Amino acid sequence: xxxxxxxxxxxxxxxxxxxxxxxxxxxxxxxxxxxxxxxxxxxxxxxxxxxxxxxxxxxxxxxxxxxxxxxxxxxxxxxxxxxxxxxxxxxxxxxxxxxxxxxxxxxxxxxxxxxxxxxxxxxxxxxxxxxxxxxxxxxxxxxxxxxxxxxxxxxxxxxxxxxxxxxxxxxxxxxxxxxxxxxxxxxxxxxxxxxxxxxxxxxxxxxxxxxxxxxxxxxxxxxxxxxxxxxxxxxxxxxxxxxxxxxxxxxxxxxxxxxxxxxxxxxxxxxxxxxxxxxxxxxxxxxxxxxxxxxxxxxxxxxxxxxxxxxxxxxxxxxxxxxxxxxxxxxxxxxxxxxxxxxxxxxxxxxxxxxxxxxxxxxxxxxxxxxxxxxxxxxxxxxxxxxxxxxxxxxxxxxxxxxxxxxxxxxxxxxxxxxxxxxxxxxxxxxxxxxxxxxxxxxxxxxxxxxxxxxxxxxxxxxxxxxxxxxxxxxxxxxxxxxxxxxxxxxxxxxxxxxxxxxxxxxxxxx
Length: 511
Ligand code: ADP
Ligand code: MG
Description:
By secondary structure, this protein is of the alpha/beta class. It has 4 domains: about 5-200, Rossmann fold (3-Layer(aba) Sandwich); about 210-365, P-loop containing nucleotide triphosphate hydrolases (Rossmann fold); about 370-420, no CATH class; about 430-460. The protein contains 23 helices and 14 strands. It has helices at about 10-20, 25-35, 50-60, 80-90, 110-115, 125-135, 150-155, 160-165, 185-190, 205, 225-235, 245-260, 270-285, 295, 315-325, 345-355, 365-385, 390-400, 405-420, 430-440, 450-465, 475-480, 505-510; strands spanning about 40-45, 70-75, 100, 120-125, 145, 175-180, 195-200, 210-215, 240-245, 265, 290-295, 305-310, 335-340, 360. The strands form 2 sheets. Strands 3-4-2-5-6-1-7 form a 7-stranded parallel sheet, sandwiched between helices. A 7-stranded parallel sheet has the order 10-11-9-12-13-8-14, with helices on both faces. α2 (about 25-35) runs parallel beside α3, α6 runs parallel beside α8 and α15 (about 315-325) packs across α16 (about 345-355). It is globular. The N and C termini lie far apart (about 60 Å). Bound molecules: adenosine-5'-diphosphate (ADP) and magnesium ion. Adenosine-5'-diphosphate (ADP) binds near residues 28, 52, 301 and 303. Magnesium ion binds next to α3.
């Protein structure tokens, strides 16, 4: 199917083309015709499936443009308000439509001026309610859209929504969009929608198969080490690390910064300006590691996030879906990596069942493995490097004092220092230990002692690991011994690129 089949006006087709949309996503294909026919709608589709355009395109198609505010969109957070308003601006600009964004934390007057000139208003519930209650604005929109309704519920905005609707005209077309459909949302729908048609993009289509989901079992005190090791190993482009609390976000960003990573923190308590700047620097790629709480990262739409790390398991399946939906967007592939402690294994099973996906259990790579991978990447990089004229001059100068092999060794040592892997040799539980825990968490309690013995064995090995030089690397040894337990050992295909990219260490300082 193509967008042509909707027979949109020329200015809208132009915008779609400029946005680079080739064909409608499933939720767009289903919802757009219904909306164009004038029905109320309740639509459910996973995060990242194009819900904004699913309501934005048909509403803009139907708008006349010279009638003041024709469309009101209510969204749960400031970030989403800005994002949705950006996207709608893009769709409406060739038709001369103006958008205004309304959210808390900024001056009333400027927002009110903007609203009075706008055709489309995108608002968060709190500020919108304030403005309506104090009669600072009056709205008479033909189209009212409740976007990301489930998040609205999660954030406790249900009462505000109900109040807002008492100020809106009875004659209107109301559209509701949500990633999930909790009972309270269905009840709200009955209250505010008028004989709605519903669109549900089924479970099968909903699971984003572009996202590889893995989990690693670590003991509680190893989380930090495990996270840094995995970042070193996976060499992500842009990534988001999710924490449960603001305090954890602060602590982790402090720690990672102290370890030479360039990170940005995002949580609910930040000043508006600061949040905007942070998000912009992430979008532009000035910072590639984002540490955030669920609430702060709600709906965050950055297209090239390669990895999502769950520093802690989220509390529920819906948060899990929201979190991992930050990667694998717009057809790209992504990886979601979750750190769990042994006691959280049950949660993994529950989430897998709720969400209908499989998470692959993996063992944290050893220091040696990460080093090997980085060295390999470095060899590739060296082999592919173009030689510059000034480099030739530099080597000529060095050749007055050293032979060519010594020069090569010295240069390799400089760049090798950049990819030096820090930390303990092995982190986290072994494949065998994890398997035992999984069996136990599923109710089986065979061979209870086995796990304990194995833990001791590992502790012994760790103790001796650094002393015994010339041994096989611990991991290889581990894999060899536990070969039979290996069920799902996915190919960790080496990824090209400079592993030290994320680490802005200044090695000159030491010299
Ligand atoms: P949702 O609200 O379902 O989480 P969004 O509306 O934020 O998803 O869309 C996610 C991303 O996909 C946005 O960057 C959007 O521009 C892009 N997108 C939406 N529809 C299409 C389409 N038909 N083709 C390509 N990209 C699209
Ligand atoms: Mg959305």
